[in-house]
Every structure is written in structure tokens, then in C-alpha cells.
């Protein structure tokens, strides 16, 4: 059967004893796609990767690469290469030897391997680094050597297991962009696992959010952020306000939610039960110095600034709000009368019903 995807997982389950580390997972990755699997520690990401790479066998289900089943195919016979968090470079070899190693193992002649390694080093911005010891490189350069060593083998699929995890924050920010650009330049299919939502959002074409062995939602970064399908996705991807309450009325997708204080808020949601949880992104919270300025919003409340969290470009406010047992988080405007607001100042907050996503708790 013709296939248009580089990777297909079909109802893949992996059990350790009675525990399903990966539970009935199905997805496809298109050629040239940057696909991330995002989830908290212990959700099953590594187990999933190890099955794709061939280090583990699924308990049930099928794994196909370019339409060919990989079940029973040993790791070294799969058209897949993996980049680990530790990078696993060989410290006794220089940069060029590290990159050429996989080629010589596959029977490519020494001179050809060296030439291809040098070409690859040039493409990842490390021209002239071949003779250097890997121990004499910066963290970012080592990262590029690991990618070069992987890509020189021209795999159908590159698996990356938290490759930026060991880097400091500043370098991680830089490498996120660099890795995305390298992937786009080579047009190689990447499957990337991470617990860091900002990494996944910046780099991925699509993200699968994983929780307790299952995929909760698969979508583009924007889809996940603006239209989370589950409470887990809403709270795991991006900053959000979160309130618990009871549904007091619901019709045509519009929901009235009563908070424990008795305050009623308006949101949107489907298939709800009485007990519910609601999410509002901080940037969706409108702020004003007077109530009338928010009169078009169905949700309007009075509050007082309890904290100003200055973070350079994107500062936020925490607002103790009447009727809410936790402060409302909002983005601090960069300009206008509220830009210089201080702790203790009175303020009004509001949001649309669309901005408040309500789910069964
Ligand atoms: P982390 O981000 O911390 O690496 P993860 O999402 O990659 O976590 P996995 O390492 O895949 O999670 O583990 C998923 C679950 O399966 C965990 O509960 C883990 O304890 C369990 N598990 C993983 N490998 C084994 C094994 N070989 N034997 C038994 N249980 C295992």
C-alpha cells in the first residue's frame, strides 16, 4: 500500500507488567515534518522513542517507517538515527572522526567518510573543526556535532530525546532556533521528545501532548494553545488561569460556571458535567481602571494588584479579584495608563465567554 508518511504508529501499546507505559497510541509523521512529543516526566515519551528506534518491542500494535513494518527489525537495520540528551559523542575521537564513525561502520571507505564528514560539518556551521577534540568544544558546538553525526547517515527519520536538556537556559534558547533551522535546511523528518512546552511550541510543525501513556491531543502549536481539547493540554501548554466550579447552566456551547464564592462566570464548553474546570489565558484578560470600560464583556470583576512580575519583554500582573480564591494573572500592558501600575492599586479585570474554556473536571 502506498504511504505518504515517514512514520506511522498504529495502536501501539507497551506494558511493563500490568502498567501500560504507552497505551494505544496512533499517529503519523509526514516527510520533512518536525513532530514533537510533549509530556511530563514519566508519561511514556522515552518508551515510545525507544520502540521507534528499535531498543524496545511494543507489546501490541505496529510501527511503520515509509510504510514498512519495523516490528522485529533490529535497531541497527532501521533507517532511523537518534540524538540523546547526553549526545554520546566519543571523547577519544576528534570532531571529524565522530562524524565519520557511522559511515566507516557501514563500510564506506575512510577517505570518502572523511570527505562526507567535512561536508556535513560545513553545513552545520563547523567548517574547519574536524581536527578539534570534542572536549574542546562549547555545548552548542557539541550539539551541532551530534546532529552532524546523525544526519551524515541520511536517515529517513531522526529521533531526538531531550537533546537540549543539558544546556544552560541562554544556550537552549539559541539552540531551539538553530535546531529548527537545521531541520528546515535538511528537510529531514524529526521526532523530538521534550517535557519543555516552550521548546515544543517554538520548533514544531505539530505536537502530540502525552499524559499517562496516552496522547491527549495532536495539533499545531497554535491549535493546542488556542483550542486545547482537554484540561491537561490547557494547563500543560502555555500559561493559564485555572478555576474550579460548578456548571449552573449550559446551552449551545455557552456555559455559566459558579465558583465556590458564589460568583458566576460565563465561558464556552461542551459535554460538561456539574463539576468543571475553567481556563483563561493571561493575555485574554482585559484590564481597565474603571468598570464601564469593560461593559461589553460578560465577565467583569473588581480587584487589586497583588504582584507585578517584571520579566523584561513580557511582564504580568497578579490581581486579587473579588469572588476568586486565586489571583487572576494578566499581561501587563507595555504602554498606556496601566503600564506603570503598582502593587495595591485598584483595577478591573474582564474577559469574553470565548476566552474562558470550560471542561468537565
Ligand atoms: P522522563 O521524561 O522522566 O524520561 P518519560 O516520559 O520518558 O519520562 P518513560 O521513561 O517512558 O517516561 O517511562 C514511562 C513509565 O514506564 C514510567 O512509569 C516508568 O517508570 C516506566 N518504565 C519505563 N521503562 C521501564 C522498564 N524497563 N521497566 C519497568 N517500567 C518502566
From TrEMBL:
SMART domains: AAA
PROSITE patterns named among the record's database cross-references: ABC_TRANSPORTER_1, ABC_TRANSPORTER_2
GO cellular component, one term: ATP-binding cassette (ABC) transporter complex
Highest taxon of source: Bacteria
GO biological process, one term: quaternary ammonium group transport
Keyword annotations: ATP-binding, Nucleotide-binding, Transport
Residues in ABC transporter domain copies: 7-237
Name under which the protein is recorded: Spermidine/putrescine transport system ATP-binding protein
Similarity comment text for this entry: Belongs to the ABC transporter superfamily.
InterPro entries recorded: AAA+_ATPase (IPR003593), ABC_SmlMolc_Importer (IPR050093), ABC_transporter-like_ATP-bd (IPR003439), ABC_transporter-like_CS (IPR017871), Mo/tungstate-bd_C_term_dom (IPR008995), P-loop_NTPase (IPR027417), Transp-assoc_OB_typ2 (IPR013611)
Family annotation (Pfam families): ABC_tran, TOBE_2
Transmembrane segments: none
Amino acid at each position: 500500500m502506498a504511504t505518504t508518511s515517514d512514520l506511522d504508529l498504529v495502536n501501539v501499546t507497551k506494558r511493563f507488567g500490568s502498567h501500560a507505559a504507552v497505551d494505544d497510541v496512533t499517529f503519523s509523521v509526514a516527510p520533512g515534518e518536525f513532530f514533537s512529543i510533549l509530556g511530563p516526566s514519566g508519561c511514556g515519551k522515552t518508551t515510545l522513542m525507544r520502540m521507534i528506534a528499535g531498543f524496545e518491542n511494543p507489546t501490541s500494535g505496529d510501527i511503520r517507517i515509509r510504510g514498512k513494518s519495523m516490528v522485529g527489525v533490529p535497531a541497527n537495520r532501521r533507517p532511523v538515527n537518534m540524538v540523546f540528551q547526553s549526545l554520546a559523542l566519543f571523547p577519544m575521537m576528534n570532531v571529524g572522526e565522530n562524524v565519520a564513525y557511522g559511515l566507516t561502520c557501514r563500510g564506506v571507505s575512510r577517505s570518502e567518510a572523511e570527505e562526507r564528514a567535512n561536508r556535513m560539518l560545513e553545513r552545520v556551521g563547523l567548517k574547519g573543526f574536524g581536527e578539534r577534540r570534542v572536549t574542546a568544544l562549547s555545548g552548542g558546538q557539541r550539539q551541532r556535532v551530534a546532529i552532524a553525526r546523525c544526519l551524515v547517515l541520511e536517515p529517513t527519520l531522526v529521533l531526538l530525546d531531550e537533546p537540549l536538556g543539558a544546556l544552560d537556559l541562554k544556550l537552549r534558547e539559541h539552540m531551539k532556533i538553530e535546531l529548527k533551522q537545521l531541520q528546515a535546511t535538511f528537510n529531514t523528518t524529526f521526532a523530538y521528545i521534550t517535557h519543555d512546552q516552550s521548546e515544543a511550541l517554538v520548533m514544531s510543525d505539530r505536537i502530540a501532548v502525552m499524559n499517562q501513556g496516552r496522547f491527549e491531543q495532536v495539533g499545531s502549536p497554535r491549535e493546542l494553545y488556542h483550542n486545547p481539547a482537554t484540561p491537561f493540554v490547557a494547563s500543560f501548554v502555555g500559561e493559564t488561569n485555572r478555576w474550579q466550579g460548578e456548571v449552573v447552566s449550559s446551552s449551545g456551547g455557552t456555559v455559566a460556571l459558579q465558583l465556590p464564592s458564589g460568583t458566576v462566570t460565563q465561558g464556552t464548553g461542551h459535554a460538561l458535567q456539574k463539576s468543571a474546570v475553567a481556563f483563561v489565558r493571561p493575555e485574554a484578560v482585559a484590564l481597565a481602571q474603571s468598570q464601564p470600560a469593560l461593559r461589553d464583556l460578560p465577565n467583569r470583576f473588581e480587584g487589586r494588584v497583588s504582584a507585578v512580575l517584571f520579566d523584561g519583554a513580557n511582564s504580568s500582573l497578579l490581581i486579587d479579584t473579588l469572588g476568586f480564591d486565586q489571583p487572576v494573572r494578566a499581561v501587563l500592558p507595555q504602554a498606556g495608563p496601566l503600564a506603570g501600575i503598582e502593587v495595591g492599586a485598584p483595577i478591573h479585570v474582564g474577559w469574553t465567554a470565548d476566552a474562558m474554556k470550560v471542561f468537565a473536571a
